[in-house]
Amino acid sequence: MEYKLIIRKQAKKKLMALPNSYRLKIAEKIMWLGQNPDDIRLDIKKLSGQPYYRLRVGDWRIIFERDDFIKIISIEALKARGDAYK
User: Fold this and answer.
1) How confident is the model at residue 86 (pLDDT cuts 50, 70, 90)?
2) What is the distance of C-alpha 75 from the center of its chain?
């Protein structure tokens, strides 16, 4: 079952500032996430002590929240690997 994707303004701004090659890879993973967030190949991890999950895309992390009841995934932030867990 597909999920509705919401990309927060901050995450969208960061995505648009990235080089084209990263932008395309990240956009592809976000689309894949919306189609099946339970796909084991996405290597999604729940962040401890937070309501968020992370999805790795190379050196970038997509931080998102998911609501399985209403089938929505909200992309909260896009962060470089070193900054993602601060």
Assistant:
1) low
2) 5
